[in-house]
Design brief:
single chain, about 375 residues, mainly beta, 10-stranded mixed β-sheet, 7-stranded antiparallel β-sheet, 26 strands, globular
Length: about 375
Amino acid sequence: MRAEMRRFAGSRLALRVAMGMLAPLLMSCGGSSSSGGVAKTPLIVQAQPPTITATAAQNGAQVITLASNIPTATMYYTLDGSAPTTASTVYEAPFLLTSSVTLKAIAAANGFNTSLPASQSFTINVASGTLVWSDEFTNSGATNAQPNPATWTYDTGNSGWGNNELEDYCAWGSNASPCNAASPNAYVGTDGALHVVAEQPSAGVYTSARMKSQGLFSFQYGRVEARIELPEEQGLWPAFWMLGNDIATVNWPASGEMDIAERVNAATTPDWNMGSVHGTGFTGTNLGTKYNFPAGETAAGWHTYGMIWKPGSVAYYIDDPTHPYATFTPASVAGFSGAVWPFDSGPSFFILNLAVGGQWPGAPNATTSFPAQMVVDYVRIYAN
């Protein structure tokens, strides 16, 4: 018994010595106690640097993914070798690299000290005009297929989307009324094309799809184009467009919007497409240019709708990238009160959708045929 008590007393003595040595360290961390003695504030742990993963795209380009071991962390990065801070670009989704950069990234989270930077240099030599990413919507099967879930997700519901639209947007596989998984509103057909379909399952009820690459894939700068057949019916509003990744934090229109293919209603003579940009201080019809198709052509035929995106410049073309019909720069927005050019602040993601109704086209009428569809042969990105 006494031997056990001596061992216990020795343990208590060792503990007191250890605590005496540890107390200054704990107190140096800024903790305090109202009754004095050892600090009660827990130590703050430093976040680990983000991991950087590169996946091959096409012809030497890379898709970069950042990840943190802290689920609630926000990651910030730079591409010019400078030290990132919490004022740097926020990482929202994997993004495409087509040129040589030095990437540095940090992770920050409540309850943690900001991480040290992760750093990785990429040597990428891609010639201008080189195809660096694409979705060709291939389907070698005998039935309609799901659009690539690694690239495409969906907006869903019937909120009106700020435009008083009438449709319910449906995701692949959804049976939430009025959606029908057996009749998907977006699918890759056996013809090797994406079909975005608007349907009228009952009187006054419409379904369609709004596909997006948000959170899955994004890019900044390059030439992007899609080969599309657009539907031309009263009350239909097809579009191929882009929003900034930062819409999750700064909201619209501060995120910036680039409308590459957009039109409404039935064909006209001449037929047309609208190329627009929107941002803080310039929304609506402030910065849009109408392209008139040559005589005998309509948007219902196959056309290539493209955008050439460079630092300080967004230009649109149809069928011929050497002849843009509209170019917008920071000088284009200078005359609008409070305008802020948002298109150099980070990557953007794709949206392909077919709206029904809304403030611009108005409602469908007896002349509108359902189902109606926007058909997309491919989406491609080329290096500047």
